[in-house]
Every structure is written in structure tokens, then in C-alpha cells.
Design brief:
Helix content is 23%, strand content 31%. It is an alpha+beta fold and 144 residues long.
Amino acid sequence: MKKFIKVYKSKQIIVLNKYKSRKVNGKNVGEHRLVMEKHIGRKLTKKEVVHHIDGDKSKNELDNLMLFPTKSAHTRYHLEIGDLKLKSGSNKKKLVNGKLRCFHCCEFKTLEEFVTRKAAHLGVRGVCKQCYSLRRSKQEAGMC
């Protein structure tokens, strides 16, 4: 990890991997996180992600920042706008034109149409809500 230290008008700004940071209580904190904390009036949790809208990590103005509740929500955003490609693998879910293929019915559907699961890849299971509810009703009826 490259580390550069720049001094601006008696303020020490540390640049780590193109992110500007400042020392707060002896720890380096991303300047973009500090700007967002000031705007919302509270500390950010470790899970929250601050995204730079234009992709320039050095621009930390509020109108260039977007807050995501989790890393998976941030990843989902990048997949939906199409600037992030998933590595292909045998068990990887793959988005095609912003849609995911259901493992059961093989139809392409939006992420909102899938059963959510925090620990799963993309934050969803591989089965759409419709197939999942059909399967559950068959299980409850004793058919499976």
C-alpha cells in the first residue's frame, strides 16, 4: 500500500491508495467518510460504504458522495450500472443486462424478484421469490 503525506496550510493529509485521509484519535480516517459523517450528523458504522459518484477518489464534496448501508449494496449498485463484471465460475450468479437467472425456472429476473440472503453472493439466493414460494407450499403439503 502506497502512502503519501502532504501538508496543506498546517493540516496534514495522508493519501492512501488515492483516498485522502486524516488522523482522528490516532487512526487514519478517509476524508470522504468524515464529510458524510458531518452531513448525516453521526459516526458511520464499519459496514457502511461511501461511494464517489464520478469515480474520482480525491473529490470529497458532498454532491459527489453516496452512502450505502453495506458492501453488498454497493457491489449491487456497480453491477446494476454495468461498470463491474463478475468473475465467471461454476457456482457464481451472473447478471445479464441487470437481471439474474433463477436456478429453478431459468428465467431472467431483476434482483428485487429474488429471495434475499445477507451471506449469499449479491445478497440474494439463486431462486426467485415465485419459485421459492411454490417450493415451500409443496413442502408444506407433503409433496416434496
